[in-house]
Design a protein that fits this description.
This is Transcobalamin-like C-terminal domain-containing protein. It contains 4 helices and 8 strands, in the order αββαβββαβββα. With about 140 residues, it is α+β, with helices and mostly antiparallel strands.
Length: about 140
């Protein structure tokens, strides 16, 4: 015998509100936290051949991309999407093309990989960022 259970529309509404509330809590716990005010940060660029460039800046920016834009000698190029922000393809004329040579520009914060891309990476006073030319082929060959 087939018995159909009829759920109340009110129950569905409560379930939808509960899911939305859970999603908002998760977002608030995982979103990038920005700090307002003046920050002094260092930025290093480490190229494929081992050479490095060092920059320092004082900025009111809240995100790394905005801070890099205040450094005239640092030229960062890339493709922008609404979902991910700027995807770096070249720094100071040096390209890293994953499709061509399996290379990319890694962003490190005090030596550790960043949790966000350049557009969403929040900055804090006295932090050091490194843009590291990285070859995926070399990474895969490491023990």
């Amino acid at each position: 015998m087939n018995k159909h259970i009829k759920l109340s529309p009110l129950l569905g509404g409560f379930a939808a509100i509960a899911v939305l509330t859970l999603l908002l809590v998760i977002y608030s716990l995982t979103r990038p936290v920005t700090i307002v005010g003046t920050k002094n940060i260092s930025i290093d660029v480490a190229y494929e051949d081992g050479t490095k460039e060092h920059y320092e800046t004082t900025t009111e920016a809240q995100f790394l991309l905005e801070a890099t834009e205040s450094i005239p000698d640092l030229k960062i190029e890339g493709n922008t999407s609404d979902e991910f922000g700027l995807m770096i393809t070249a720094i100071n004329g040096t390209s890293a093309d994953y499709q061509k040579d399996h290379a990319y520009w890694a962003i490190l914060l005090d030596g550790e990989p960043c949790s966000y891309g350049i557009s969403q990476q929040p900055i804090k006073d006295k932090e050091t960022y490194t843009f590291q030319y990285t070859s995926a082929k070399e990474e895969a060959a490491k023990p």
